[in-house]
Design a protein that fits this description.
The chain is α+β, with helices and mostly antiparallel strands. The protein folds into 3 domains: about 100 residues, no CATH class; about 160 residues, no CATH class; about 80 residues, no CATH class. It is built from 8 helices and 24 strands. The strands form 6 sheets. A 6-stranded antiparallel sheet has the order 2-13-12-9-4-5. Strands 8-7-6-3-10-11 form a 6-stranded antiparallel sheet, with no helix packed on it. A 4-stranded antiparallel sheet has the order 1-24-14-15. Helix 1 packs across helix 2, helix 2 packs across helix 3 and helix 2 packs antiparallel against helix 7. The N terminus is likely disordered.
Length: about 375
């Protein structure tokens, strides 16, 4: 989906013109590949078969079991041949998705909803909503709403920028964003918080902009003393624009993630290697691979009886669990009797906004614009005009 809203410079005037960017409707994959769900409408909703035009009014607060059958979608007492759309009568109406009676997750979502019958006899539920509304459900999941207002505002600008530059990421699945960390964590109405919502409203429409385009902005929990070059982290380092090349950072030194250790047995590591298609029976050793300018590992070498496996450090984190192996800022790898100990700094990929650093800057009286200037040097904060 292509953006189309006018951006106006919110800071000092620059020679470059801001592009038109859209606060268009975005699509979020709320439920993916499920055999069935239970929907309950709160308020007035119509359900429309988009293939035949068949329309029914849903009863308020009544459960509708939705199942993906062969060639049709069963929606309570109705049978639809195509994708169906749930259309609210007012902006306050919402739908609860889940099966709360048996303890399965349930969530509440505003806006128009699509229920699609997939070819493998499963269904996908997609929410359609505006970017600002989406951010209301993102911000408190991505940063503690207990934190300083200026830190929350900085996060709001970065999250909005991330949203605009990642539209269509899950296009093959039929939507823009997932609800988990592959995009930004999102839980609709259930993840809203007044303080986080206030930060979104205070920065409404503002994004990071550099040399004629929106910055490909990212964020993470703690950088460990220096943020990383986006290119060094994910490749094409020479192409990284100035705002995401990385900066030295003293602000996150008080973070509980500043230093960490993790331990994995030989069996844990060998299992991870085999699970990812590299068959081996014995782990002989682990070596440090290439480093970026901050000292983060770009690659890790795994020596096995089947040969040497060279894996990107951030991929290895995912193999072992990114909440245990907190970052690629690994300072020591030490062989123990039954496994390996890892010592490092920071939490996350290290690119863009350091959230603990942003909080520390806010506590010292820095504004959200000063925070963003530190982590994205050379970028302007610009505001779209609705």
């Amino acid at each position: 989906m292509s953006p189309v809203l006018l951006l106006l410079a919110a800071g000092p005037a620059r020679a470059e013109a801001a592009p038109r960017i859209s606060d268009s409707i975005i699509q979020i994959g709320i439920v993916q590949k499920a055999p069935s769900v239970v929907l309950r409408a709160y308020g007035g909703f119509s359900v429309v078969d988009q293939k035949t035009g068949e329309t029914h009014e849903l009863k308020d607060r009544e459960d509708y079991a939705v199942e993906a059958g062969r060639g049709a979608l069963r929606f309570g007492p109705y049978r639809f041949l195509g994708q169906v759309r749930l259309i609210p009568k007012s902006a306050e109406d919402f739908v609860q998705i889940g099966e709360p009676r048996v303890g399965a997750p349930a969530g509440r979502y505003h806006g128009s909803l699509l229920v699609r019958h997939d070819s493998d006899a499963t269904l996908t539920v997609v929410q359609e909503t505006g970017i600002e509304e989406y951010l209301y459900g993102v911000l408190a999941k991505e940063m503690s709403p207990e934190w300083e207002p200026e830190a929350l505002k900085a996060q709001a600008v970065v999250s909005r920028t991330f949203t605009l530059t990642n539209l269509g990421k899950f296009g093959r699945a039929g939507f823009d964003f997932s609800v988990d960390q592959r995009s930004q964590v999102y839980a609709g109405l259930d993840s809203r918080d007044e303080r986080a919502t206030a930060a979104v409203r205070a920065t409404q429409g503002e994004v990071l902009f550099h040399q004629g385009k929106v910055v490909k902005a990212f964020f993470h929990a703690c950088c460990g003393g220096a943020t990383s070059n986006v290119g060094a982290t994910w490749g094409n380092g020479e192409k990284a624009e100035r705002p995401v090349r990385g900066v030295k950072d003293r602000w996150c030194s008080a973070s509980p993630h500043m230093e960490w250790t993790a331990y994995f047995t030989f069996a844990d590591i060998l299992h991870a290697i085999n699970r990812h298609g590299k068959m081996a029976l014995r782990l002989k050793g682990i070596g440090r691979g290439a480093e970026d300018a901050t000292g983060r590992l770009k690659t890790i070498k795994l020596f096995t009886d089947a040969g040497t496996v060279v894996v990107r450090a951030n991929e290895f984190r995912n193999w072992m669990g990114s909440t245990d192996l907190k970052s690629a800022f690994i300072e020591r790898i030490t062989r123990r009797k039954k496994g390996y100990a890892f010592s490092g700094r920071g939490f996350g990929h290290g690119v863009g906004l350091c959230q603990w650093g942003a909080q520390a800057m806010a506590l010292k009286g820095k504004s959200y614009r000063e925070i963003l200037e530190h982590y994205f040097p050379g970028a302007d904060v610009v505001q779209r005009e609705d």
